[in-house]
Amino acid sequence: MRKKFLQKSTKTMMTFGLVAMLTVATLAGCSKKNPEDTSATPTPVPTEGAVSNGTLTYTPGTYSAKVTGMHEMTVTVTVSENAITDIQIEHSETPGIGEPAVLSIPAEIMEIQGLGVDVVSGATLTSNAIIDGVVESLKKAGLSDEDINTLLEVKKIVDKVEDQELSADVVVIGAGGAGMAAAVTAKQAGKSVIVIEKTSKMGGNTILSGGALNAVDEGSETALANNDSTALHYEQTFNGGDQEGDPVLVKTLIDNAWNGVEWLKSLGMEFYDETFTVTGGMWPRAHKPVEPEGTGFFKTYQNFLDNNTGITMVYNTTAEEFITVDGVVTGVVCTGKTGNKVVVNANNGVVLATGGFSQNVEMRQDANEILNKWPSLDESIPSTNTSGITGDGIIMAEKVGANLVQMGNIQLLPLGDPNTGSLSGNIEHSVESRIFVNLDGNRFVNEAGRRDEMTLGLFNQKDATMYIVMDSDTYPKGDEINNFGESIADLVASGRAYKADTLEELAGLMGVSSENLTSSVNDYNRYCLGGELEGQTDEFGRALFTDTNKANNGINNPPYYAAVRVPTVHHTMGGVQINENTEVLDKDGKVIKGLYAAGEVTGGIHGSNRLGGNALTDTVVFGRIAGTNAAGFQK
User: Fold this and answer.
1) Which of 110, 114, 308, 450 is the most exposed place for a label (fewest CB within 10 A)?
2) CA–CA separation, 535 vs 545, rounded Å?
3) Helix crossing, 177-188 with 295-307: angle to 10°?
4) Residue 262, Cβ neighbours under 10 Å: how many?
5) Is 451 a catalytic residue?
6) How many other C-beta atoms are found inside a 10 Å radius of the C-beta of residue 453?
7) Which residues touch 166 (CB under 8 Å, ≥6 apart)?
8) What is the distance in angstroms between the CA of the first residue and the CA of the last residue of the chain?
9) From CA 419, how far away is CA 565, in angstroms rounded?
10) CA 427/CA 481 separation, integer angstroms
11) Which ranges constitute the DSSP H helices of 381-473?
C-alpha cells in the first residue's frame, strides 16, 4: 500500500505511583534493553509508600499545571498531608531526548520527596519544564516560595562509581546520527565497537530534526518527475553554500546519498514514497521517514543493536581528551556520571561525532565575529539543538592538532518556537504550501529560498517575528500531525497555532492587518496552480509554488492556519577539517592517524549555507565512511 504523509497524533501518559516506578525504556516502541549497555543510569527504585519530607504540610488533593518542554505537557501531582504520592505527565516529548526526562525526573522526585534533581543531559528544556510543573502544582497545594526552596535543597546522594578501562576495535564518540551510522557500519565490517555518549540516550540533534533526508535516485521515476539529478543536487549544494564547500566533499555527499537511503532501508527503516521540498532545500528531493521527527533513525539503529552483539553503549559519560601514542590517536579519556574516570582504548580507529556548537553561546558568539553575518548570537537567540551540543569534540580535536575550518559559517532558521527556539509547533509540511508574513500581514522574503536569506529577512522585520500561513490542503481532517509528531488540533487548542474559516478571522487572531493578509494571500495564489501567473517567478524571486503531486493549488481551502515563528540557531557548518575518507587533517593538511570525524563536528562540506535536508544525508554518508575506515585502520 502506498504510504502517505498524513498521520494521526498520539500522546503518552506517564504515571509514577507509590507501588511501582517505571523502568526507563531505550526508545518508545523499543523497550528491549541492549545487553551490552554499560550506562550507569540507575533504574528507579520501587517504593512501598511515600516517604514524608518531615517538615512540610500539603493540602491533600490532585493539582495540575501546563508547561512547555520541547512540546506542551501537563504535569499532575497528587499529595497527602505530608508527602508527594503520585506524579502523572501527559506529553508528546521526543523519544530518546525529552522522554527520558519524563521517565526519570518524576521518579526521582518521588524517591527523595524533594526537588533537588539533576536535569537529564541533553534534555534541559524538558527537565526544567517538568520541575516547573511540579513546583506550580505544589504551590496550588499550599506551599510557599520558602517551602519550594526547602524542597530544592533536598538532593539524592550518589556514590562515586569506580574508575574503568574499556577497549574495543572501534571507539565512537557521540551517539547521534553520524555516530550511530559509524558504529553500525563498523560492526557490519566485523569489528567490536564502543560508543561513548554524554547524555542518557542515543539521538543527538538528528532525533529532534524533521527527518528530511535529501537524496537523488538517479534516473528513477521520482527523479525524472521532479526534473532532478545528482548533478542538480551537487550544483544547488555547492552554489547554495557560495562555493565555499570542498568540492570533493560535496561530491562525496551527493554521490553516496541514495546508497545511504538504501542502506537504511536494508536495516528496516521505512520512508514515505513521495519526496518533498524541506525549508531551504531548494528542490523536492527530501525523503520523509514514516516515524515522526528523527526517531525512525534511532529505532532502526536500536533494532540493529538488539539483534546483534558487539556494540557497547556507554551513556552518561563525557569524552574529555584523546589518547595519542607516537602521533596516533588510540583512544579517549572520559568522565562518568559520578565523576569517575573512564578510559576507552581503540584497537583500530576512533570516530569523532559529537555534533556542532549551537548551544555554546560563547563559542558561537566568538565564531560570529569572524564574519559578523548575524546581528547577534547571544543568549537572546534560542537554538533548535539539544542542550548537549556544545562543541566539546571540536575543542578536543583542536588540542591534538586538528585544523578548524569555516567556523564563522553558522546557520539560523526562521522557524523557531518563540518560547523554546525548537522546531516544535512548526505547522508547515512542505515549502510549496505556505507563506511567511510579518506582523503587518505582509510577505517579505522568498519562502523557497536559502535559509540564511530567509532568516536575515526576518531579522529586518518588527520584533524579528513572523507567521507561517497556510490552508487545509495538508490538514484535510484537522487531526493530522506536522513533521514533528504534533496534531494540528492540539496546537490550535493550546494556542500555539491559530485556525479560522476566513482570512479576515485569521488576521484577527494573529493581530495583523486583515487587508494586508488578504492581499498577500491573493497575490501569492496568482502564481500557484491555476493562477494567471502560474509557472512564473514572483517579486521575491520565488519559483516553487506547487508540489510534485499537484496537491497544493494556493491558500484557498478553509480552514486556514497560522503559527508564530522567530529566528533560531540551527546548524554550525564550521568544524574539524576532514578529507573524503573522513580522516581528520592537521593545520598542514596532513592526516592525524587513527582519528576520523563525521557529522556536524566537521567543517568544509556545506559552505556558508547548508541546504535543508542535507544534514541528515551528511550523517549517514560520512558516518558510514568513518565507520568503514576506522574499522580498517591499522596502527
Assistant:
1) 308
2) 8
3) 30
4) 10
5) yes
6) 16
7) 38, 194, 312, 314, 342, 343, 344, 345
8) 50
9) 10
10) 9
11) 392-399, 451-459
The per-residue pLDDT for 304 is 98
- Average pLDDT, integer, range 358-379: 97
Residue 182 confidence (pLDDT): 98
- Mean pLDDT score across all residues of the chain: 90
- The verdict on whether omega for the bond into residue 418 sits within 30 degrees of 0, i.e. cis, is no
CA distances from 555 to 177, 435, 492, 527 (A): 36, 9, 18, 11
Residues 388-411: b if buried by 16+ CB within 10 A, e if exposed: bbbbbbbbbbeebbbbbbbbbbbb
| Distance between CA atoms of residues 378 and 391, nearest Å | 16
Cα 423–Cα 237–Cα 368 angle in degrees, nearest 5: 60
Whether the Cβ atoms of residue 470 and residue 447 lie closer than 8 Å to each other: no
- Predicted confidence band at 542 (pLDDT cuts at 50, 70, 90)? very high
Main-chain dihedrals φ then ψ at residue 77, nearest 5 degrees: -120, 130
CA–CA gap between residue 389 and residue 356 (Å, rounded): 6
Q: Report the alpha-carbon angle 258-263-264, nearest 5.
A: 100
Q: Cα(268)–Cα(273) distance, rounded to whole angstroms?
A: 15
- Written as one string, the DSSP assignment of 40-107 is -PPPPPP-SSPPP-SS-----EEEEEEEESSSEEEEEEEE-SSSEEEEEEEE-PPTTTHHHHHHHHHH
pLDDT in tens, 116-170: 988 887 678 889 999 999 999 999 999 999 999 999 998 888 788 999 999 999 9
Residue 7 pLDDT > 50: no
Query: All 3 cell numbers of residue 383?
Result: 537554538
At residue 43, the pLDDT reads 31
Q: What pLDDT sits at residue 34?
A: 43
Cα 536 from Cα 538, distance rounded (Å) = 6
| Catalytic entry in 434, 450, 451, 565 | 451
Q: Which three cell numbers stand for residue 563?
A: 503559527
CA 191 to CA 462: how far, in whole Å? 55
Asked whether the CA dihedral 511, 512, 514, 520 is positive or negative, the reply is negative
- DSSP letter for each residue of 337-404: TTS-EEEEEESS-EEE-----TT-HHHHHHHHHHH--SS--STTS-BSS-TT-S-HHHHHHHHTTBPE
The pLDDT tens digits of the residues spanning 450-479 come to: 999 999 999 999 999 999 999 999 899 999
d(CA 278, CA 492): 23
Place of cell 588510540: 330
Q: Is 150 exposed, middle or buried (0-12, 13-18, 19+ CB in 10 A)?
A: middle
Average pLDDT of the segment spanning 525-542: 95
Q: Which three cell numbers stand for residue 40?
A: 550507569
Per-residue model confidence (pLDDT) at position 548: 65
How many Cα atoms are found within 13 Å in the side-chain-facing hemisphere of 624?
18
Q: Tell me whether residue 532 is exposed, middle or buried, using C-beta atoms within 10 angstroms of its C-beta: 0 to 12, 13 to 18, 19 or more.
A: exposed
CA–CA dist 229, 516 (Å, integer): 39
